[in-house]
Amino acid sequence: HGQDNxxxxxxxxxxxxxxxxxxxxxxxxSSISQGIEPAVQLAIQHIKESRNYKFxxxxxxxxxxxxxxxxxxxxxxxxxxxxxxLMIFGGVCPxxxxxxxxxxxxWNLVQLSFAATTPVLADKKKYPNFFRTVPxxxxxNPAVVKFLNFYNWSRVGTLTQDVQRFSEVRNDLTNELEKAxxxxxxxESFSNDPCVNVKKLKDNDVRIIIGQFDENxxxxxxxxxxxxxxxxxxxxxxIPGWYQGNWWEQANSTNCTTRKLLTAMEGxxxxxxxxxxxxxxxxxxxxxxxxxxREYSKELQQKGVEPSKYHGFAYDGIWVIAKTLTRVMxxxxxxxxxxxxxxxxxxxxxxxxxxLDVMNETxxxxxxxxxxxxxxxxxxxxxxxxFQEGQEVKVGEYNAIADVLDLINNxxxxxxxxxxxxxxxxxxxxxxxxx
Amino acid sequence: MSGGWPGGxxxxxxxxxxxxxxxxxxxxxxxxELELIHYDSMCDPGEATxxxxxxxxxxxxxxxxxxxxSSVSTLVAEAARMWNLIxxxxxxxxxxxxxxxxxxxxxxxxxxxxLHNPTRVQLFQKWKWTKIATIQQTTEVFTxxxxxxxxxxxxxxxxxxxxxxFLTDPAPAVKNLxxxxxxxxxxxxxxxxxxKVFCEVYKEKLYGKxxxxxxxxxxxxxxxxxxxxxINCTVEQMTEAVEGHVTxxxxxxxxxxxxxxxxxxxxxxxNQLMSKLGGKNPEETGGxxxxxxxxxxxxxxxxxxNKTVGPLKxxxxxxxxxxxxxxxxxxxxxxxxxxxSFEGVxxxxxxxxxxxxxxxxxxxxxxxxxxxxxxxxxxxxxxxSWYGNDxxxxxxxxxxxxxxxxxxxFL
Lengths: 435, 411
What we know:
- The complex is a heterodimer.
- Chain A is α/β, with parallel strands linked by helices.
- Chain A is built from 13 helices and 16 strands.
- Chain B is of the alpha/beta class.
- In chain B, 35% of the residues lie in helices and 16% in strands.
- Chain B has helices at 8-24, 45-56, 70-79, 116-126, 140-155, 171-179, 191-204, 235-242, 266-277, 291-314, 328-338; strands at 64-65, 86-89, 106-108, 131-137, 159-166, 184-188, 212-216, 246-250, 342-344, 347-349, 360-367, 370-378, 383-386.
- In chain B, strands 5-4-6-7-8-11-12-13 form an eight-stranded mixed β-sheet, with helices on both faces.
- The longest helix of chain B is centred in the C-terminal third of the chain and has 24 residues, at 291-314.
- Chains A and B meet through helix 3, helix 4, helix 6 and strand 7 of A and helix 2, helix 3, strand 5 and helix 6 of B.
């Protein structure tokens, strides 16, 4: 390797992209990858059809099996024995992704992920060469703040499962809330049994509770909430929105009946990223998100694989790569022409730096909305749903680029006559007592 | 050589000393010469990944990997099975590394960090505290130490009432501690983060007579005075914030005068190391305390390799037949290391999956800007030797929570 960077001068080049994701069906999170392949192929095909690109991308998949050791070996082998890759696409499992993403500088490689949402990867000091088209778990926080503002809730409590994925989101939320002058009346965290902490929230008269925990603990939390009467018209729960459908049936490890859980859960707000844009505008591929989705579904059927929630981010990701490489090519060719009389050479380091800078300036409409990065993080769309009589109903959307919250008319419901209050109001009254 | 734990500064010369001695000995590996190929990982797993690639994908073939920092060891030890390599660390204290399933070929001469916890619990009990708060940097070494502490405090009827964690910026976590009225706080983080934490502690006024901090004892003695561009507190402010905190650390130098496998007493070892460091101040040399462990790691390896020559010969194989694709030589070295037992400069060296090798911990307190030894604890015997020179701002150690006294008043 090293100085071989002539790829940018030729036409009709086939540019190899290293794809890292778990493929082996027995591996964790491989279900995410299964539905990705059709989206990637669709993007490559659409790019070719657009005739705007001088090259074609070829993706070479290396199976990480969602295992740190196997993932690292696959990556090392790809570098040693594979073609000279211009970029890495993928990274699904948080631990494998962070190990590889942290080492990229050593190879001047840039990585673009479509499925790794762990907030840790937002640390630019540690992962300077990492980008993602999927919003991180932290991206819900500005949306939540907007939501709280809308209902004039200025006093909240947080309840967090003490594992990195959640405590990071909580820490970031703490900052956002402080910036927005929202009082954090109580910050509770637990590792296994949330009941003591739910009780403390109640004792502190917290009404608006922002929770960060997984499905299994969510059922425990709502069971405690039921037993402590922390539901109904006086309370508002706000929790992650990426749980599986009907999670309360599958993840219920409590001695609360489903009926009790459903009672406590009624009206909770769930927050998650929006997998495809709801706006029907023709994006970079000349298709609307709906049109794209139709084609994607057809591909799925033909291949007989299950859909992946991240397919839109993968589709847009391939476009990011194509746009980035085109621009880098142009810049390098321009430089070459200028340097004609000198011996023009460019080393991997310069190319890597160029790819990084160009990728940073990405801005186009994809199927997941406007694709833009801020410090490598995707500025995306966040979706609000509300749990209403056994179903999650979409009630609103938050756009990070415009910093705007859109609530859908007449979808939010409250069990009382008005939204819950964020605290007990004490009204002082003079009373006369006859002695 | 730099980063969170710059242990290589003293551990490299120490390992080199052991290597020179082993290579000179005619009774250990007479037909072989051990060679050390070393890189500076900067205690950074990202950097280490690139170096690991260079080690594995260039000649010559290596027989053993010897990482230092826990974060680097975790990475290397987890990946090593793909190349049938044994990993032997001299500087990793992460309790998570005791997991044989995840790290099947890993050994270490460094005791596990869980060894601090019985000492901490002992001190909580001594000072009658039943409510504890914790703040940790979310790195596996600290997370798993904390899991162990939680189990041990529970057993002792002590409650961890507040748990806070941070990745890079401790400010929200420190604010939360203040907000939750934490008094007795166990802090688990590397030295660079410790400075950030205590700058925040200063700003939040989370120090003074009502608060007691428990920290790890392996920072440099002047860690809070070191100029650090990432904090905006002055040395005076830092010194004020850290006053009175308690540290625990594992004793790593054999306190007894015995001549072990290398025919060196621990004092002679120290003298030789000092002269090898060429006048550098040991207190400012990273890894000086752990240097005996690096020395003993090389000895453990040499003795183990020596032990495999015979059995390999019986199978018609030699050490130089080793490659990354066959398991039988790895298995032979594993067996030999597993049964190691010799007297090193760090004490008796035996390996078990749990990693608690040395029994003694040293307890110190920062008094007037410098550390004073206040006691030793031997957890195997439950034996606390107390000097009685701990100092407090009030008449004694503070209470672990706000005490609400209800009183009738007549108007």
